[in-house]
Structure formats: structure tokens, C-alpha cells
Design a protein that fits this description.
Blueprint lengths: L3 E4 L14 E5 L3 H4 L4 H9 L3 E5 L5 H5 L2 E3 L6 H14 L5 H7 L23 E2 L4 E2 L15 H16 L29 H8 L5 H8 L3 H13 L7 E5 L1 H4 L4 H14 L10 E3 L8 H4 L6 E2 L3 E2 L8 H8 L11 H13 L23 H9 L5 E5 L3 H4 L3 H8 L4 E6 L4 H8 L1 H5 L10 E6 L8 E4 L4 E5 L12 H15 L9 H5 L14 H9 L1 E2 L21 E2 L34 E2 L27 E4 L4 E4 L77 E2 L21 E6 L15 H6 L4 E4 L1 H7 L6 E5 L4 E8 L6 E3 L2 E3 L1 E5 L22 E2 L11 E7 L6 H13 L52
Parallel strand pairs: 2-3, 2-7, 3-4, 7-8, 11-12, 12-13, 22-28, 23-25
Antiparallel strand pairs: 5-6, 9-10, 14-15, 15-18, 16-17, 19-20, 21-29, 22-30, 24-25, 24-30, 26-27
Keywords: 4Fe-4S, Iron, Iron-sulfur, Metal-binding, Oxidoreductase
Protein name: Formate dehydrogenase
Subcellular location: Cell envelope
Amino acid sequence: MGTSFGRGGATQSLQDMANADCIVIQGSNMAECHPVGFQWVAEAKARGAKVIHVDPRFTRTSAVADKHLPIRAGSDIVLLGALINYVLSNDLWFHEYVVSYTNAATLISEDFEDAEDLNGLFSGYDPESGSYHLGSWAYQTEDDGSGHEGAEEHAKGHEQRAKAGGQQFGSGGAPVGTGTPKRDKTLQHPRTVFQILKRHFSRYTPEMVRETCGISEEDFAYLARSVTENSGRDRTTCFAYAVGWTQHTLGAQFIRTASILQLLLGNMGRPGGGIMALRGHATIQGSTDIPTLFNLLPGYLPMPSVTAQTLDDYVDGIRTTNQKGYWANARSYAVNLLKSWWGDAATAENDYAYDYIPRINGAHGTYQTLMAMLKDQVEGYFLLGQNPAVGSANGRLQRMGMSHLKWLVVRDLNMIESATWWKDGPEIASGELRTEDIDTEVFFMPAATHVEKSGSFTQTQRLVQWRHQAVTPPGDAQSELEFFHELGKRIRARVADSDDPRDRPLQDLTWDYPLTEEGEPDAEAVLAEINGRFLTGPDADKPLSSYTQMKDDGSTAGGCWIYTGIYADGVNRAAMRVPGQVQDEIASEWAWAWPANRRILYNRASADPQGKPWSERKKLVWWDEENHTWTGKDNPDFPLDREPGSHPDPQQGGPDALAGDDPFIMQADGKGWLFSPKGMLDGPLPTHYEPQESPVDNPLYTQQQSPTRVMFPREDNLSAPSGEAPGTDVYPFMFTTYRLTEHHTAGGMSRWLPYLSELQPEMFCEISPELAELKGLEPYGWATIVSPRSAIEVKVLVTDRMTPLTVGGKTIHQIGLPYHWGAGSDAVVSGDGANDLLGITLDPNVQIQNFKTGSCDIRPGRRPRGAQRDELVREYQQRANLTIMTGMERITDPERELNDDPLRARDSGDVAGRSTAYTAGTATTDQGEDK
């Protein structure tokens, strides 16, 4: 829906999937990777729901689905876009929902030009920076800027519209400028979002799905009928995804396309609808809520940029004072966070210690940090539950980067490959690195497991659950809380007497957590700090019960506004454990879901514009006419006293400006976004581009790959040619990576356990019988897989689960690779790592790496040993004539001049935080999610 909670969690609860009439699982092998949550899919199926699995492989999820649709990895936008076209062309969209609750009727700037006009690009593209100026994507507004004050405000709003996109580094509620957006509820005006949407997706047809995805017209028709027949007033369809969608250069747009479809069908905010973001292990959702990301502060507040010199500058970059919705209160959220961190030292006079927060000047994610390591610009590195030597893209580059460090701290349960690469890694075997020449000092700190510590974890469905310590950690193993509390104490002691202003933020931190009987910091005290409390007045020191109680005058403090209420009345609500059989279907007393223990976001949309449920069967929240309040089964996601037909003055801003038919309360206009005027760096509408490495040309546009993708052209990060380019036949096959139930991510929790290692003892590949015959591969024999980056050896599993696809007149063979193995001597089992094959190319919105598509060759036999492996890789590179610039072109239309006027910005505002031609982008996310 745009940028409602940045990269916040699923709109629904897992349990709510049981209420779906159709479930499409795409980009996930849910039955194997999320087996506990899959119980709700099984229950929905038992109630009569259709379950459809779209995936390159036939998996255990496929086995229990009604239908499996094999798809070419990376082509999902074409399939989803064709569903959108099917819905629009056959008049199957939910008319009243769409007109009232989305921006379908909103008029877009006359300056906007679509990918249909510019053959794969949108207006405002700047080839020099590889990024978009966003001004031409703006809404038309009733304020035409006449008069001196109006013109000044209009210009200011225009500048904000031009800059407030992904370059605000991940915040939600992107401002849409001043003035009331113009709307045509007849949807006939050619500049309405609706008409732009129809034209944009008109070329996404069943025939295009066959040619691009490898899915037949008959299978597409089955999917289209299943989704549309199970959507509407009385029925809802749910989409579920995991990293099979996110880990692409177009990952954010995959999800956007599904969001558009769900809005058109009226499935957002309703029981059994929405989009389920399946999170893997604890606490993947929590790591973006209270973030481990360079670009975010807790609660999806953006990290300040170097251009935001004051707190007011910072807040004004997040919201405008007259925008609708709860993001207009961003100042309160920011001030409460600052008060939580710096307490009495944060005052109105010093901007609540805003200057204590570091500023960013661009993307500083995992892979940018890696590139800085290779330039000797990073001295030290902490690895906490991460194993980049195995689990990150281009494993060789990861290990080489660590060899440039002065020190490396690894906190883990076992001696993982990222702790031992300096003595037994592949580069030691090849002679590229010699242990005696490596200056990196490695510190291994034993970590406590999840059963050896107390605390919360947040994953699928935004559900914050409390775990209680079961056993004491062995030896010197520590929880993260104890480790960082002790580290903070020691650092603060070192700077206690310092007069250096740089040390003031450390000296002034509130670092006074009570200890348990065992001498560890009390995890519940941290939860209470995150929840927030009153600092002054009659309720001083009492916990806050809602984020609406937060003030921007320093009288309240809270560490993460979306978690406010989790410790209301001094009760740890994450620890609620009321059994489901004694609750209603919402199960609101099992743990706590942010925000406000709300299980279905935007649930105002579950009622019609008059406040009545769309149907009795899908009843969730409704307007109680007698008591003049919103009520229902779930916690209403709407101002409780806002009558359905009310139309407040939008200029008053914030929640008070929300009309009775503005259910999307985190959006600046209160509507679900079919078109994103802000918030997406690679286009206001999803557009199909081929992956960085592809065996076929883009059949929709001459623009081959995303022109805004983040690239790192290097000799040790070469890309294969794509489409009809010379050398594509050297790497003729596609590979995609995935995870197994028996192993956990990079193997740190499973390859050291004999029982799990026995279940899956060796690295292998899955290939079709046709590919095995083509390449002379024997079942259970050895094979070598070669990419432009590396060569690995695998055992061969020949299986009908891998289906050759016909795409663009070619037979496309896809190879499935689990990614759990790594080369080392400490684990029970080891093997070559699949991620060594991957290059590093990123989604520009969130900086997530592309794990799901790559080009390769496969040949019988084991790979060469030592330096001979590198010689094999080089021989392939030479045959394909690879250079640093292979596949690195931004503009791939041979007839287009880079300086053509239509590609240039139509406004004079510069792109905020403009990056270099190859690294334009923002944030890193989902780095540790299960594949």
C-alpha cells in the first residue's frame, strides 16, 4: 500500500489465514520453512479454501496445495501484473471499495510519463545517478499555488514531493505535499490513477505470462478464476510470501504488485485477506521494528541524514503538518525515543539531544560496508547471529573482506565459518590467502541459545511473544542483552572523565537497568522502557498504554512508539498465553501484536463507507450507531469516534484530518496506494525487468534490467551476459537458492548437531531428468556448478520436482540449491556453499541482495581442488568474454540517447542523498531471514 509502516510486518495474523477462501503462496515454501504457521493454511483448506503454490520447485507446500504452478524465478511481476489486467479488463474489481478506499480516483501530474511512454522507464530518470527525480509522479492538488503565500507553500510542497521518497531511508507515510488531491470518482479522467493503471498493465496478458514465466494460459486462467471468484463482499483471498519475493533486485516491487491486486479485489484490512509476510526465525520482524538496519530508528523512524541539521528539519522530512494520518505525529515519536535514550539530558533547549544521533549520507548497508572493508576503510566488525562467509552473496568476497579487518568479533553458538575462514576457508586451500599473512584478530564470544535467555521475539504477523529462560547457558555463553549491557558499561567507564564533546552521547545514555538474581539485566525492564512511561504529572512513572498518549514536549518517554501498550498497567502482555480454544478467532490474548495489539491492520476497510460490514460472513469491525463508536472483534484501526460519513478539514492535519472513508491511517492521504507518488525508488508502478543475469531478453520493454538496481562492478563480482548477448550460452542455466527444514539458515544451529546433519548430510542440487540427460549427470553422482564468481561441487538429485519451462522460445532449466553448507573443519558436516556462486546486486529500495536468480553451467564430476578451481572459473569467464562492465549497463535501449529530454527531471529539485552511478539506493533488510 505504499509506505504505511516502511517495511513493517504482515497485514494479517497467521491465525486469520484460516478465514481465507483462497490462499496463494508465492515466493515461499511455507510448509517446510514455516511449518507451525502452516497449520492455519491446512485449516483453511479443510474449511474449503483453495490453496495454490507458485514456485520454481515442487515442494512439500506444493504437495498439499490444490495446484502447483512452476514459474521462472524472477518473473513474478508479469504473473501478478497479468492478474491485475485480468481483474480490470473483466470488470472484476471491487468498485465501492476501490473508489472509496484507494487512490484510484486521484489525478496524477500532467508531467508524469509511464513506462509505456518511455519504453521501460518513468519520467524523471537521471542516467547520471541511476535514480529518479520524483516530482512528476506527484498528485494534482486543488491548491494551484496562486498568490504569494500560496506559491511559496506550493513550492515547498513540490520540493518535499520531489525528495520524500525512498531517500528518506525507510520511513512510512511519505508526504504527498500541500493541498487537497484532485479526485475524479467517475474514474474517467485519463490522469486518474485508475486509467494510468489500466494502461500500464495492459500488456501483461496470459500470452505474456506464458512467454515470460513459463506458465500456460490454462494454468493462468485457473489462478485468475480462483483469486477473483474468492474475492468480494463475501469472500477473501490471502497472499503469502517470504524471501522468494524479497531477495531480488525487484523484491519490493513484487510485493507492491500483490498489494495493488489485493486493493483492487478489496482484500486489504479484511478477515482472510491481506498479505502475509512470512518471517523465518526469531526475531526477524523485530530486527526491523527495533532495528538492526543502518537506515532506521525504532518504530520505522528514518535515520537522520546529514542534511537534517535540527530536530525540526528531521521531522519535517518525515511528514508535513497538514498531511493526514498518524505519521503526522512523527515529532512525538522522535522526542519520546530521544527521551528514552538520554533521559534528563534530553531537553527542549538542546533539541532533546537530537545532535547525539549519528547522521548518514547515503547507503551504509551490509554490502557497502563490505566494499569499504576491501578498501581498508573498516577496522573492526561485529557478527551477531550472522555467518557471511556462508550466508551472504559472493562468499569469496565476504571472506576476502574480513581478511582486511584489524579485528573481528563473532558471537555465535558454534565456531562458524565466519570465525574460522582464516585457517580453513576455500581461499586458504587455493593459496589466495595464507594464514600467516592475515592480520585480522578474531575474537569468538560464545552466545546463549534461545532457550538459555529470556526476552521477546517478533516474527510473522507482528506478534511479540515472550520466551522464558529454560536452562542456564553453559560456560561463558551470554545473552545479547548481557553482552551489550556489559560492553556499554565498559565503554562508558572508559569515557567517564572525558571532556571530548564526541563522548557526551555515551556519558548521557540512560544505562541503569536493574539486574536479576543471576546478575543479568532484567529483560522485562527493557520491555518497559520500550513501552514508555509518563515522566511528569499525576501519572509520573506509570506506563503508557497507547502511542496516542505520547507528547512532543518531553513529558513522556518511549523507546518504540509502535510497541507502546505492550507493558500497559505494568503487565508484560507479550507473555499472555490464553489458549485458543477459550478465545475468539482473533486470539487477542495470545501474546501482543503491534500496534495496539491489533491483529488485522487497516481493519476499517472491513466495513463499507457507511460503517456496515461488507457481509455478515466477513464481519470484523463496524460503526456502532447507538454508542457512536467503532467496535468489533478486533481492535479498530481507526479513530474510535470518527463517524463513517465525516469529512474534516484536511488542512488541520494528522489523525484529526482523516475522513470517515480513509481507512489507511498511516498514509498521507488516508488511501491505499495503487500508484505510489512517493516511497519507491524504482517506479510508482511495478514494472517487469529481467534479473541481473537472465537467459532471455525482456519481452515487455527494450530496457532489460532495472535501471535503478544497485551494482558493484568489480573483477571479483563479474556478471554473466543476458538474453541474446554474446557469451550467454557459456552460462546457459538458471540457479536459485532455498532452505531445507532440516537445516537452519547458514547452518550454524544445525550442521553442528549430529541428528540433523544425519538427515541432510551433503550439499546437493535438484535438477530435472531432462537436464540430467542433456548434461550426462548421474543420480547421486557428483557435479560441478560454475558461475562467473566461483565453482562448487554438489551431489546430484534428479527429480521431477524441477520442471523445464519454455520461455521466449527457449527451454529454461532451473537448478535448485540449498544454501546451508560451508567449507570448514569444525562442523559435523561441511561442503561447498551455494552463495559463493552469487554476485552482489541489490534492490534499490531496501538494499536486499538477489539470492534467487543466477546464471551457471553444470558439468559431471567433482570440481578441481586448490588453485585449479580458480583456473576453471577464469576459463569460463574468458570464453564468455566477461568484463567488469558486462551486464552493468543502466540503459539497454540501443536507440535511446542518454540525454534525451523525456528522461531528464522535469523539476529543478535535486534527488536527496544522490548516490554514485553504481550505488544509488538506501537500506539493508531481511539479511538474516530464512530462504
